[in-house]
Amino acid sequence: MPYFKTSQEWLDHSVALLEARPSQTRVTTRYSIKAVKPRKLTDPDASSADDSAAAASDPKPPRGSLVLKTYDPASGVTLKYRTTKAAEVTRLMHAAMGRLGRAMANVHDVPEATMQDADAAETPQGEQTPQQAQQGAAGGGGGGKKKKKGKK
């Protein structure tokens, strides 16, 4: 099972697989935290007692790993992606829960509709409400460009 090199590539292929077979395809996530193994020095002559003492007293924090897998049992297709980047883990969890979740539920992306104000919905197109007339008559105020400050 090969891993994809980029998360976007994995996400695009996973969406396509889920759209083809939404009832059979499964998306799984696995998050694991493992302790970082200390590096072995390659040159024994270059190491000193000070370096080994500093390395032992300053251990690296454990490293988390997220593995995402999309599997279709009917065709046997498996799509995998692995990352250790914390920022990417958050983004992928939102993508997996959002975009892939909608594809699994067979709900298509619907663009958000803009909501109208209650006054605008009741008033015909050509007329203005009293609030709109007052705002238009007041004129002038705000919205102009600000003066840029120079470097000192």
From TrEMBL:
GO CC terms of this entry: signal recognition particle, endoplasmic reticulum targeting
TM ranges: none
Annotated signal sequence range: none
Region ranges (Disordered): 36-69, 107-152
Pfam families noted in UniProt: SRP9-21
Record's compositionally biased regions (Low complexity): 44-58
Alphabetical GO biological process terms: SRP-dependent cotranslational protein targeting to membrane
Organism domain of life: Eukaryota
Segments forming domain SRP9: 4-104
Cited PANTHER family: SIGNAL RECOGNITION PARTICLE 9 KDA PROTEIN
The protein's name in its UniProt record: Signal recognition particle, srp9 subunit
The species this protein was found in: Trichoderma arundinaceum
